[in-house]
């Protein structure tokens, strides 16, 4: 009888205390939400049970490679599958904190403060730490970010976007089409 109770107790202890997927969800750095369609389908619908993260950041200027010489702002949009593995990342660099419609161009190797917004799109494979496909903006399309509102006090920023990307480099697990058209994009986050 004691042996049976010990086995049951041990089983219950293991079953309730060990979970590989415990605390899967957005990180503490994520704030806000985003939505869009990719090639006419809701972005992220293939990640049933997955989650998104969005964060806005401020970067100090500097002389490092690919760094802007003056302070700039970015927004990063990420999708994770239900296991918490990173799958897709859209980055908008040099976000102006001014209302209006702003042009978006491919990310260059050298940042120029006079350029409009830069955009990049990446996929991740395996357990989320292996770079997959790399996409670049298709400059012949109407690519834009529209800032609807920026609150200087709360640092909240709201807006819309429309972007078209084409494949630049194919990674080990090519799953998305070679052309990605993001339409009806909306976001709400904070620039920290």
Walk me through this protein's architecture.
The protein has 192 residues and is mostly beta strands. It has one domain. Helix content is 8%, strand content 47%. It has 1 helix and 11 strands; from the N terminus they run H-E-E-E-E-E-E-E-E-E-E-E. Strands 6-7-8-10-9 form a 5-stranded mixed β-barrel. It is globular. The termini are far apart. About 7% of the residues have low confidence.
Question: How are the secondary structure elements laid out?
Answer:
Blueprint (H helix, E strand, L loop, with lengths): L1 H16 L15 E6 L2 E2 L8 E9 L12 E9 L5 E8 L6 E7 L10 E9 L4 E8 L6 E7 L5 E14 L9 E12 L2
Parallel strand pairs: 6-7
Antiparallel strand pairs: 1-2, 1-11, 3-4, 4-5, 5-7, 6-9, 7-8, 8-10, 9-10, 10-11
Helical content (DSSP H or I, runs of 4+): under 10%
What's the mean pLDDT score?
A: 87
Give the strand order of the largest sheet, numbering strands 1, 2, ... along the chain: 6-7-8-10-9
Estimated share of beta-strand residues: over 45%
Alpha-carbon distance between the two ends: 59 Å
Low-confidence stretches: 9-21
Helix/strand class: mainly beta
Short description:
By secondary structure, the chain is mainly beta. The protein has one helix at 2-17; strands at residues 33-38, 41-42, 51-59, 72-80, 86-93, 100-106, 117-125, 130-137, 144-150, 156-169, 179-190.
List descriptors:
1 helix; 192 residues; five-stranded mixed β-barrel; mainly beta; 47% strand
């Amino acid at each position: 009888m004691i042996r049976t109770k010990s086995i049951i107790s041990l089983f219950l202890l293991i079953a309730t205390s060990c979970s590989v997927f415990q605390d899967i969800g957005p990180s503490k750095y994520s704030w806000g939400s985003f939505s869009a369609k990719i090639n006419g389908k809701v972005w992220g619908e293939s990640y049933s049970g997955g989650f998104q993260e969005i964060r806005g950041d401020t970067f100090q200027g500097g002389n490092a490679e690919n760094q802007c010489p003056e302070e700039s702002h970015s927004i990063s949009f990420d999708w994770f599958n239900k296991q918490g593995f990173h799958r897709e990342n859209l980055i908008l660099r040099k976000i102006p904190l001014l209302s209006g419609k702003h042009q978006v161009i491919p990310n260059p190797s050298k940042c120029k403060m006079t350029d409009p917004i830069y955009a990049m799109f990446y996929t991740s494979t395996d357990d989320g730490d292996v770079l997959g496909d790399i996409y670049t903006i298709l400059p012949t399309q109407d690519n834009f970010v529209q800032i609807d509102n920026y609150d200087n006090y709360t640092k909240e920023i709201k807006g819309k976007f429309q972007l078209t990307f084409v494949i630049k480099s194919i990674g080990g697990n090519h799953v998305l089409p070679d052309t990605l058209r993001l339409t009806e994009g909306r976001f709400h986050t904070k620039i920290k």
